[in-house]
Design a protein that fits this description.
This protein has about 300 residues and is α/β, with parallel strands linked by helices. It contains ten helices and twelve strands. The chain has a domain of about 200 residues: NAD(P)-binding Rossmann-like Domain (Rossmann fold, 3-Layer(aba) Sandwich), CATH 3.40.50. A six-stranded parallel β-sheet has the order 2-1-3-4-5-10, sandwiched between helices. A two-stranded parallel sheet has the order 6-9. A two-stranded parallel sheet has the order 7-12. The N and C termini lie far apart (about 40 Å). The relative contact order is 0.15.
């Protein structure tokens, strides 16, 4: 069994292995780490006996919970399911991590915050989630932190990758058929490339820093409208789009999504990046790397 401060000889179990972060964790796995990749078919977070059996069979040194209910708007109509996966599921995972003597990295979200703000959120700021999704993820944080020093909560924001469904891929698809589209301009956050987040997760496991709540996102703050404009400009440069459509601003209220959205969720990553020995790249750099991968896959 590996010691804290190194990943040599470590066995890591990942939940949500088929998702954006899960796949990126597999892509960026340190050579010396033995990986047990579990999607929801191999590990159902709501199955108490199943979680106990999986941890007993595999005996990991650390569990990374990259699995979650992430359908923010759908959660408003399915609050019990969101709470079961994002809250109770983490409670079960933490309980069995305690029994197995392994560590837990719980991946969380900027959506635990809300309210008027013009400065990045600190890890010790008081969470006040306003959506079903945000409240369920906060419940998961609390459940993980009950493990004491054997748990770390890593919050992130606006995650995208070349895998799965996300805002970047949605914009690329729209950009192929539209000359003009409307995007929300009164929500501000930090887009984060899943591979960069995955590298931060591996560094958390290696260094196991204090404090127990950490923030990682790529650098810089932008609105969804600004992010869309950046996506189209970089996609044209990468040869993925012939031309960039015009992006018109709209408000959260006018867009009318079922789930309420916090207006400002930029995370302060200064303390975390210093503790991890990481320099978060600018969000546009992460976007460029992701689009280059998409372009290479298309060739």
């Amino acid at each position: 069994m590996s010691q804290q401060g190194t990943t040599k000889g470590m066995k890591a179990l990942i939940t949500g292995a088929g998702g954006q972060l899960g796949r990126s964790l597999k892509d960026t796995r340190p050579e010396q780490v033995e990986l047990i990749a579990c999607d929801s078919s191999r590990l159902d977070l709501t199955d108490d006996a199943g979680v106990a059996q999986r941890l007993s069979q595999t005996q990991p040194d650390v569990v990374v919970n990259a699995g979650a209910y992430t359908a923010v708007d759908k959660a408003e109509a399915e609050p019990e399911l969101a709470a079961q996966i994002n809250g109770t599921g983490v409670e079960l995972l933490a309980k069995h991590c305690a029994s197995a003597g392994c560590r837990l990295v719980q991946v969380s979200t900027d959506f635990v915050f809300s309210g008027p703000r013009n400065a990045p959120w600190q890890p010790d700021d008081k969470p006040l989630p306003i959506s079903v999704y945000g409240r369920s993820k906060r419940a998961g944080e609390v459940a993980a932190l009950a493990l004491g020093d054997r748990a770390r909560v890593l919050r992130t924001s606006w995650v995208y990758s070349e895998h799965g469904h996300n805002f970047v891929k949605t914009m690329l698809n729209l950009g192929k058929t539209r000359d003009e589209l409307t995007v929300v301009a009164d929500q501000t956050g930090s887009p984060t490339y899943a591979r960069n987040l995955a590298k931060a997760v591996w560094r958390v496991i290696e260094r196991w820093p204090q404090p127990r709540i950490l923030h990682y996102s790529d650098r810089g703050a932008i609105t969804w409208q600004g992010f869309a404009e950046g996506i189209f400009a970089e996609a044209v440069a990468a040869g993925l789009l012939a031309q960039a459509p015009r992006v018109l601003p709209t408000t959260t209220e006018a867009y009318g999504a079922p789930a309420p959205r916090p207006p400002y969720t930029v995370l302060d990553t200064t303390q975390t990046c210093a503790a991890l020995g990481l320099a978060a790249p600018p969000w546009r750099e992460g976007l460029r790397e992701m689009l280059e991968r998409l372009s290479a896959d298309a060739d």
